[in-house]
Each structure stands twice: as C-alpha cells, then as structure tokens.
Amino acid sequence: LNIALLAGDGIGPEVINQAVKVCDAVAVKHGHEIKWIPALTGAAAIDAVGEPYPDETHKICINADAILFGAIGHPKYDNDPSAKVRPEQGLLKMRKKLGLFANVRPTFTFPSLIDNSPLKRERIEGTDLVFLRELTGGIYFGEKGRKDGGETAFDTCTYTREEVIRLAKKGFELAMTRSKKLCCVDKANVLETSRLWRETVQAMEKDYPEVEVSYEFVDAVAMRLVQWPNSYDVLITENLFGDILTDEASVISGSMGLMPSASVGEKTSLYEPIHGSYPQAAGKNIANPLATILSAAMMFEDAFGLKQEAESIRNVVNKSLAEGVVTEDLSGKNKAYKTSEVGDWLV
Amino acid sequence: LNIALLAGDGIGPEVINQAVKVCDAVAVKHGHEIKWIPALTGAAAIDAVGEPYPDETHKICINADAILFGAIGHPKYDNDPSAKVRPEQGLLKMRKKLGLFANVRPTFTFPSLIDNSPLKRERIEGTDLVFLRELTGGIYFGEKGRKDGGETAFDTCTYTREEVIRLAKKGFELAMTRSKKLCCVDKANVLETSRLWRETVQAMEKDYPEVEVSYEFVDAVAMRLVQWPNSYDVLITENLFGDILTDEASVISGSMGLMPSASVGEKTSLYEPIHGSYPQAAGKNIANPLATILSAAMMFEDAFGLKQEAESIRNVVNKSLAEGVVTEDLSGKNKAYKTSEVGDWLV
Ligand SMILES: CC(C)[C@H](C(=O)O)[C@@H](O)C(=O)O
Ligand SMILES: CC(C)[C@H](C(=O)O)[C@@H](O)C(=O)O
C-alpha cells in the first residue's frame, strides 16, 4: 500500500504521526506492507519551496494508492487580504488537479461523548448523516477579480449539468446503501446554478425509484441541522454551501476532534480530519489525533477495500474513548493524555 | 403615522392583524393616529395582478413613514425550477427599489423560554447579538443565466467598495452603542469579494478606534455561533452569508416565532418577523404573532423615534410570556391560545 503522507501545518504533523503508528500496527497484524511517501503542502511547502502544492507533491499523490492529509493553514496569512501566495491555494489546486470532486463528511454521535455537544442529548441522539459536498466547482473556481481600478470585486459561481450529475450520482448511490433518503440543498429561489442543481437531481430521481428525495433551501437547512439533525441522512450540495454546512454539522456531535472525511474523485482519494491546523496547539503534543486515525480507517475501507482493518481501528478508538485514554479536549475532569500517548495506547 | 401594511402570504395576514390591533391600542394610549395603507405582495399579488411587487405597492411603500411586512412564499412555486414569476422576486425587487441595504436581525434569549432552545442553557445564557446583513448586493443581484444551451449555469457575486462602506458604517455605529465589538464575516481565503470586504473594513477601523474588530471565516462562524453564541455582539456580512447565518442564529433562542427584524436603507424602513409564511399553519389561527408584534416595536423605536411606545409593546409581550398567554409553539403542556386570542390579550 503506497500512501502519500501530507502532514501540512500546525498540529498536522503531530496527528499524522499517530495515524502512521496505528496504520503500521494494523498492517503488521493483517500482513500488509505500507510504504509512506511524505510530501510537502500548505504553509510548510511555501516556506520550503515557495509553493503550497508543489509539482513534486502532485506527482507523489497521483502515483499513490491513497493520500493521508493532516491540516493546512497558518495565521500569518489570514489577515493579509493582499498576500500573493496562500496555503489555501495549495488545497484548492490539489483538489482540482487530483479531480477530488466529492467531499464525504459523516456526522455521527459517540454515545460516551454525547454530553459534550452544545446541543441537548434528545435532539442529537441517533444522528448519523453524511454530507456530500461538491469540491472542485462553484464559486471557488469560477472567474474572480477586480474592476473599476480595484473598487469593484466579483466572483463567479458556475456549474455544468455534468458536474451536478457526477456528484448527485454518488449521493443517490450512498443513499441506497443507507436509509434511502437524499436531501438536495440549494437556493433555487434565488440562484440560477441552484435551479440547474435542482432540475438535474429531479431528472435523476427516476433512476433511483427507491430513494426518497427532498429539496431544501440552504437557509432552512442551516436551521434544521441544529434543530433536528437526526432527521437527515444523505445530503448533497454545492461547494460553498457544503463548506458552511459541514462545519456547522461538525458541532453536533460535540466531538469535532473525532470527525473524519474523505475527498474522492477520478483517481486517488484523500483522507483527512475535518479540523483545521489549530496553530495555538501546534508542537504542544495536546491535539486529538482520533479524527486523523478515523480518517485512516475510512482509507482502509474505501480506498483499499480492507473492511476488517478499518473495523479494528474503529474498535480500538472506541475502546480508548470508553477507557478515557483521551486528549484534553475530551478528558473533562479526568487525566488528559498527550497526543503521542493516545497513539501509543492505540498501537 | 402612515404605515404601509404588506400582509403577504400564508400566516402573514393572521399575524399582521394582531400587530395592527396592538399598534392601534398603543397609538390610542399615547395619542398618535395611525393610517394603515394595505398593499399587495408575494403570491397573493401574483394571484391578484400577476406581479409579486406591483408598482402600486411600491408607490404606497415609498410614500409611507414605515412598512410593516408579514411573510411571503407559497409552496406551489418551490418545486418548480422553471416558474417564470415567483413570490421571492417580489421580495428582492422590493428590497432593491426601496434601497433597503441593511437587514438588522437581533438574536437574544427570553429568560422564561430559554429551555425551549435545542442548545444547552449554559451555552446560550446572555446571548444578545445582532447581525447586519447586506441586502441589496452580492450574488442575489449579480448577472445570472445559462450558457451552452442550458447545460451550464452561472451566478455572479459583485460588491463595490461603497456598498461595503455603507453597510460597515452601520455596523461600526451600532457597535458603538453596544459593547463595541464588531465581527466581519467573510471567506477572504477564497473569494475576491470577501477580500474587498476585509480590506475595506480594515481601512475603516481607524475611524472607530474604540471598536474592537475581528475577522472570521463564514465556516468558522457557522460553527462558533452554535458553540458559543454569547461570544458575539455585532456581526456584519454580505447577503448570502447573512441569509444562512441569520437563519442559523434564529434557532439559538429557541423562539423563532419571537424574533423581529428591520430592513433599513435610503428612505422608508421595513419591519418584519424573521419567520416565513408557514403555509401548513395558514388560516388555522395557531401561528405565533409575537415576532411581528416585536417588529412593530422596533418600528416605533427606530422609524418613529417613539421609545416609550416600543417599550410598552415589549413589556406587554414579556407579560404574556410570563403568564403563559402564548400560542401552541410555546405553550408546552399548558393551554395553547389562538393567534387572535394572544392579540386580544395584548390589546
Ligand atoms: C481552507 C479553506 C479553503 C477550505 C475550504 O473552504 O474548502 C476549508 O474551509 C475546508 O472546508 O476544507
Ligand atoms: C425568500 C428568500 C428570497 C429570502 C432571502 O434569501 O433573502 C429569505 O430567505 C430571507 O432571508 O428573507
């Protein structure tokens, strides 16, 4: 198994290290051999070679069987609207060049952690939803710029029917393996791109007669996600709405440090925790490595078809939660373990 | 006081009726005379004259001292992406033609209703924030359409520096009357329009040296709003982000049926409840009229400078909540009052 290893910025390297240890242990137990191929990305890559997603890194990624990713972002770029090179550009370039058009983000609750949520227990119990966010189109990649000597700015949101179809197809297929409920999130009462989304998904309904499809406006979903998250199953949406709603959804479980994600597309898939680079914690050995480790479990299952290996990672993670071998974000009044101690215990 | 009365669709007429009764009672008590000028809008206007915001209605609005608005929207338009005329177009046309560039949306908690929230008490206690949403620009009003024989759709988000300045100015001024904290919500790591917003607001900081300004990405705010709503005070943002985030925020208090709003701009201001037309409840005399009545209180205070009148409305609303004279959405296991009964009690 050739895995490209993109640790990135902030706490990225620390959490990635634990995932590597756990994957190696699983590989030994199940008789696999993993070859890790580290590559530069994000602010770390800008510092080293002036480019957040160097060609060298791209070459490593396309030739790998899967990509394990930490986090990118550094505060020195955030408050400088005029910065010429930004870590985020690397992320967007990577998504586009690797054709990672679908970001898969599950949100579920851990029974032992349910009281960590800002939401009341009775509102979130049983929540098990998945967002499929379109990741290589929309306003992220449309034409943008300035006019009138810099006084007017514009961004263009563009979608083709084909882009909608390939994302929606994944949504319908995923719904078929779950409870057969699909929600298409858009703003069809205002946006032309949303009307294209809605009419395209409506036309696909006949190919999946068992799937019950609903259409909801993004503002209504932003409300209902917090009110009744367990009323949703599979949700599909465009890039920017997905960015906002998946982050909102990540709060539901109260365990943001535990939520994994996958970005899938034409060839190699990428697995990453949904949390960011959390610069305040970088280098302190306190960050929660579990989201990255659970992303590695998704990688075993989805990229390699190794279900048992994925299960053995999930099982040991559940055990660490049950026995309280957790970092300070989850330890409450009990002893907080260090990032590396959690990794060692899982191994 | 000449007030244009736009009842609109669904529960609009029912809740507007209660507000009219309450305003009339306040006027009598304080020696004012109100002239109500009813006008058509929304689906009701399409049905009557084929147009969701008729010129006749616009004439009435620009000549009024204020506008009291119910709700618009009818389900028969929602699942038809190809409908030629939609109630929402009326709303957008009205905002644009009346120059209502700032939507003011407070979110606060009512001590007696705090346990209605899906969020835990300790997370929301003390929440008192205000969104200023830009309402006449951005992707709502930019060029949109189809290309490639309908196979490609596009929407354009445009902002000029002037549009940002006039909205941000209101934000800074509002912050000065409150706790002097302003949060500018954008997506400056991806969008050019957001970078214009951020650089423009940054340049205005020197004119308000007492205001502490923070800049946060929209996805981060979508999370933090649910995690720690009471960490925010005044938030300014562009049209689409504002649409999503203000709806999300409306859930915090657990009393969506109670949240008022104002849309202000160049001349006449408009006051409306934040809830929608709630077609399932239309005609049943069960809808909560308090958000509309509290919007009328905002109208007395802000449009007419009649603070005492506003306070007397707010006081009697608080009394109805304390004494349980409330509609079924708030009555819990106790007796539910009808929409009109709540109105009568307040009078
Ligand atoms: C860092 C940023 C460009 C990125 C995005 O907006 O896609 C992030 O928020 C995410 O969701 O992965
Ligand atoms: C009905 C719709 C066009 C409108 C909007 O998106 O502005 C509504 O959601 C609102 O927030 O007033």
TrEMBL record, chains A, B:
Pfam families, from UniProt? Answer: Iso_dh
Q: In which pathway does it act?
A: Amino-acid biosynthesis; L-leucine biosynthesis; L-leucine from 3-methyl-2-oxobutanoate: step 3/4
Catalysis: reaction(s): (2R,3S)-3-isopropylmalate + NAD(+) = 4-methyl-2-oxopentanoate + CO2 + NADH
Record InterPro entries: IsoCit/isopropylmalate_DH_CS, IsoPropMal-DH-like_dom, Isopropylmalate_DH
Q: Which cofactor does it need?
A: Mg(2+); Mn(2+)
Q: Does the keyword Manganese apply?
A: yes
* Leading EC class: oxidoreductase
Q: Which residues hold substrate?
A: 95, 105, 133, 219
User: What is the E.C. number?
Assistant: 1.1.1.85
Q: Do the record's keywords include Oxidoreductase?
A: yes
Where is the site Important for catalysis?
140, 187
Keyword field? Amino-acid biosynthesis, Branched-chain amino acid biosynthesis, Cytoplasm, Leucine biosynthesis, Magnesium, Manganese, Metal-binding, NAD, Oxidoreductase
Q: How is the cofactor bound?
A: Binds 1 Mg(2+) or Mn(2+) ion per subunit.
One Gene Ontology molecular-function label: NAD binding
Classify the source by domain of life. Answer: Bacteria
Family annotation (PROSITE patterns): IDH_IMDH (PS00470)
Domain named Isopropylmalate dehydrogenase-like: which ranges?
Answer: 2-346
Report the main location listed first in the record.
cytoplasm
Which HAMAP family does this chain map to?
LeuB_type1
* Similarity-based family: Belongs to the isocitrate and isopropylmalate dehydrogenases family. LeuB type 1 subfamily.
Task: Describe the subunit structure.
Answer: Homodimer.
Role summary: Catalyzes the oxidation of 3-carboxy-2-hydroxy-4-methylpentanoate (3-isopropylmalate) to 3-carboxy-4-methyl-2-oxopentanoate. The product decarboxylates to 4-methyl-2 oxopentanoate.
Q: What is this protein called?
A: 3-isopropylmalate dehydrogenase
Organism in which the protein naturally occurs: Lutibacter profundi
